[in-house]
Design goal:
The N terminus is likely disordered. This protein has a 7-stranded antiparallel sheet, sandwiched between helices. The protein starts with a helix and ends with a strand. A hairpin with a 2-residue loop joins strand 7 and strand 8. By secondary structure, it is an alpha+beta fold.
Length: 267
């Protein structure tokens, strides 16, 4: 029954994706999730519960440096939002002061108890202004977005257990190490209480852009590929990436740090 439900729900999402995604992927190293083959992979994937948990909370990044912020907001909402929960602070930042004069009204607020990219960025240990490139002593030329350790600190600040693993560049060409990384990603997907966010460069994938964050939602064993739920959703869309190509994309430098992945769960 569970598999039947998942496939039915997935089919509906895939049909919407196919209709709403006119984007074509120029890269031969990724596969559009809404393509016929992409749909087949999702239907035949394993450890795909994260896809169904994350999809209702998906939102595209609000600007070009907020990929990490958007990824954390998605994961945080998937871990924390409940139908009648009120533990997440309301965020009124998307309304003007004039509009806010009318709320709350009789105890009612127009806002939901959920994380937004604005509320997440405000609690980030790396200040928003530095994410937008303000020079610092450590980064005199500025450092847009977040490095992997910044992402870890953000998750910890929000009360989540956030474990990061930068790729070991000395081992990245080892079959044993590649197998280890793949098993770690699959293990994260297999645990319903954990979510995996990958930090990678688009360059090895022949995609437009550079460094990026996005959650992964499923694994397809036959093609040995992971579904990356890309938060860009403008000139990129959700894609399947082989474990080899994903490792190559993660095994890249972000300033003085190596990219990798993070596993986020409740603290």
């Amino acid at each position: 029954m569970k598999n039947t439900f998942l496939k039915s729900a997935g089919l509906g999402l895939l049909m919407l994706g196919a209709l709403a995604s006119p984007l074509t992927m120029a890269s031969n190293k990724v596969l559009d999730w809404a393509s016929k083959e992409g749909q087949t992979r999702l239907m035949n994937s394993v450890d795909n519960q994260d896809f169904f948990s994350l999809a209702p909370h998906f939102e595209g990044q609000s600007n070009k440096v907020f990929c990490g912020i958007a990824s954390m907001a998605m994961v945080a909402n998937a871990l924390s939002v409940t139908p009648n929960g009120d533990s997440i602070e309301l965020d009124p930042s998307r309304m003007t002061e004039a509009e806010l004069e009318y709320f709350p009204k009789d105890g009612w607020s127009p806002f939901f108890h959920r994380y937004t990219q604005e509320s997440v960025s405000k609690v980030s240990p790396k200040p928003r202004i530095e994410m937008f490139g303000k020079p610092t002593e450590k980064h005199p030329k500025g450092d847009y977005g977040m490095q992997l350790t910044d992402f870890e600190a953000l998750g910890t600040q929000m009360g989540f257990k956030t474990v990061i693993e930068p790729i070991d560049l000395d081992k990245k060409d080892s079959c044993v190490y590649a197998s280890y990384i793949k098993k770690q990603l699959i293990a994260g997907l297999a645990d319903p209480d954990k979510f995996v966010v990958v930090n990678y460069s688009r360059v090895p994938l022949e995609q437009r852009g550079t460094g990026h964050y996005s959650p992964i939602g499923a694994y397809h064993p036959t093609s040995d590929s992971f579904l990356v739920m890309d938060v860009s959703n403008t000139y990129q869309t959700w894609v399947w990436i082989s474990s080899h190509n994903l490792l190559e994309a993660m095994a890249t430098l972000d300033g003085d740090q190596v990219r990798g992945y993070a596993i986020v769960s409740k603290g």
